[in-house]
Every structure is written in C-alpha cells, then in structure tokens.
Design brief:
globular, mainly beta, 1 helix, six-stranded antiparallel barrel, about 110 residues
C-alpha cells in the first residue's frame, strides 16, 4: 500500500496512509485522538469528509496483527476504527443505539497522544 493522502489511483475508494495504520496500532486506552474520514469520488456520498476528536475507550490488536479501537467522540457519538485484513484500509463506523452501525468513511488522518 502506498502512502497516498486521499485516494487510490482509480479514485473510487480512499486509501489509508501507512501512517494511519501505524498510529492505530500504537493507540492505547484513554489516548486522545483526532481523525478525518473520507468517502471516495464515486457513489451517493462522494467527496464527504468528517473530522472529529475523542478519547480511546479500548484499543486492541488481534492475533493476525489487525488493529482496532473504540472511540468516545467529543460529539457524544461512539466510533469503531478497524483495519481491514484484505485492503489495509482503516474504516470508521458510528455505533448507535441497538448496536446499529453506520459507515462513516475510510480514515485518512489519525493523530493520537
């Protein structure tokens, strides 16, 4: 995977920079984070971007090395960031009442401390 800032060559799906995958793997519980998610250049949500900040509730890495984190955002929402085994993308999902999930894009920037 290349370290592209906003998208793959075809523009249909944003790519996750290696720096984001590294940052996700380095997160620990109670870390503060800021991130941006993006949709690709195609589809009904083309070009949408979201930025938010929050605190990591739980950060894990599974036996195969894929990282994920649950983030309690400052906007009152809860998000799951998860690295895909197949694409290497880090995708963000908003978790709502009743365990419903809403995809909110591919993470293209992640800063934590």
């Amino acid at each position: 995977m290349s370290d592209l800032p906003s998208g793959e060559a075809d523009g249909s799906t944003p790519d996750t920079p290696q720096s984001v995958r590294d940052a996700l793997g380095a997160l620990e519980d109670d870390d503060d984070v800021q991130l941006r998610t993006e949709f690709g250049d195609e589809g009904p949500r083309a070009g949408e971007r979201y930025e938010f900040s929050g605190t990591v509730d739980r950060a894990t890495t599974d036996a195969l090395g894929a990282s994920q984190a649950l983030v309690d955002a400052d906007d009152g929402e809860r998000y799951r960031l998860a690295e895909s085994y197949t694409t290497g993308q880090v995708r963000a999902t908003r978790l709502t009442a009743g365990n419903e999930k809403e995809y909110v894009g591919v993470v293209t920037r992640l800063d934590g401390n």
